[in-house]
Amino acid sequence: MPAAPVPTRVALVVHPTRDVRRALDAVVRWTAERGVPLVQLAVDRDGGRSLASGGTLEPGDLVLALGGDGTVLSALRAAAPRDAPVLGIACGSLGALSAVKAEEVADALDCVWAGDWTPRSLPALAIGDGSGRPEWAANDFVVVRRRAGQVLAELSIDDELYARVAGDGLIVATALGSSAYSMAAGGPVLAAGTPAFVCTPLAMHGGSAPPLVVPADATATVVVQPGYAGFDVEIDGHDHDLQGPRFALTLHMDKLTLVTFGPAGRGLAGLRKRLLVIDSPRVLARDERGKHG
Fold first, then answer.
1. What is the rounded distance in angstroms from the CA atom of residue 86 to the CA atom of residue 271?
2. What is the pLDDT of residues 237-253, one digit of tens each?
3. Containing H/E element for 69?
């Protein structure tokens, strides 16, 4: 595998409220000592927080996310148009997408500039609403009812109708996002690297439409018929101003690049570590008995 190109600039994405001073101070020192330009990218949900000179994404950028997993997701979306790598710095507990803790940021940057890092390729959903350039989702795209009433979402795969779902809405998730909102709604978990995405109805009112696993080369089309109160669109957990009512979703398997410093695995160990997957009580009881002979 050819060596990764050395970045030419650090582009920050920051959490809107979390204390990131320790990590930020280390980044400022590191970039100043090496003459590496430092800018901050404006993204949705950063609260207008300004911690460095503003800039736009350019070729050769390393996107540095200071915060938690939500900040990393924002950074991945910001990096998508230029396929820039994203390094997640956990300012708090170490999440599933953050590579290192705040006190390790200088060492992590040294490794990236030395080419001593492992790219973790992630899929992304391209979301088209007919308005032009697509939006990108690293985790999921959701249409959800607004206030009371229901929303009707018609789901087709490659122009073949699957179901017309009346209820709270519909989730379309990548393998990464399958362990988030979709899993909470009863959808299956897709192991990392699975060439597929999943569509999961939300609180369907009657009928039968199980969560659907869709092959990576297919197009999912969602046509929304809102109730009286209308509907909202969420991308990776945040509201987005997409009007619809027709959305076309396609999966791009290696669209996003996350900086890591070890084997990524299939994402299953992380589910167990965060107790999202727990063994059967009978097995746990057996293990406990084994500890005592």
1. 22
2. 988 888 779 999 999 99
3. helix 69-79
